[in-house]
Design a protein that fits this description.
By secondary structure, the protein is of the alpha+beta class. It has 3 helices and 6 strands. The chain has one domain: Alpha-Beta Plaits. The chain is about 20% helix and about 30% strand. Strands 2-5-1-6 form a 4-stranded antiparallel sheet, covered by helices on one side. A two-stranded antiparallel sheet has the order 3-4. A hairpin with a 2-residue loop joins strand 3 and strand 4. The chain binds adenosine-5'-triphosphate and magnesium ion (MG). The site of magnesium ion has 5 residues, from loops.
């Protein structure tokens, strides 16, 4: 299992979520973040004062997947988040030791795989 962490442009979130849905990735966490891509600092004038504008608004996506889902997940993000300009973002793939679904106590493969919610009949 892996945790795919993608830092992307805020305006690309909807496209990326759609692309993930198409490759059957369901579980995702989205958070607003501020980041710096390592480029030499931009300096801008704000009310007559020179200030360093060195943090950009980005969105962070976290997606827990089983190993065979890593490649389609990464490919979907690469395609949907790209503009070709600097600042498109980064994807990190992290190893995951354990996953638990809290409702059922399921672990690992069973826990990371989306399931239909229990029907009303059950
Ligand atoms: N090495 C890194 N570690 C953690 N976060 C990073 C790293 N590099 C980039 N980020 C995050 O990704 C955001 C976008 O980075 P950015 O796209 O500028 O990366 P880059 O490597 O400079 O690529 P580019 O050359 O296309 O600009 C940053 O604002 C930051 O939040
Ligand atoms: Mg950059």
């Amino acid at each position: 299992m892996k945790l795919v962490v993608a830092i992307i442009r805020p305006e690309k979130v909807t496209d990326v979520l759609r692309a993930l849905y198409r490759v059957e990735v369901r579980g995702v966490t989205v958070s607003p973040v501020h980041g710096h891509g390592g480029e030499s600092d931009q300096v801008e004038t704000y009310r007559g004062t020179r200030v360093k504008m060195d943090l950009q608004d980005k969105m962070r996506l976290e997606i827990g997947v089983s190993d065979h889902f890593v490649e389609p997940t990464v490919k979907a993000i690469l395609a949907a988040a790209k503009t070709g300009d600097v600042g498109d973002g980064k994807i990190f793939v992290l190893p995951v030791d354990k996953v638990y679904r809290i409702r059922t106590g399921e672990q690992d493969q069973e826990a990371v795989t989306p399931v239909e919610p229990p029907s009303a009949a059950e």
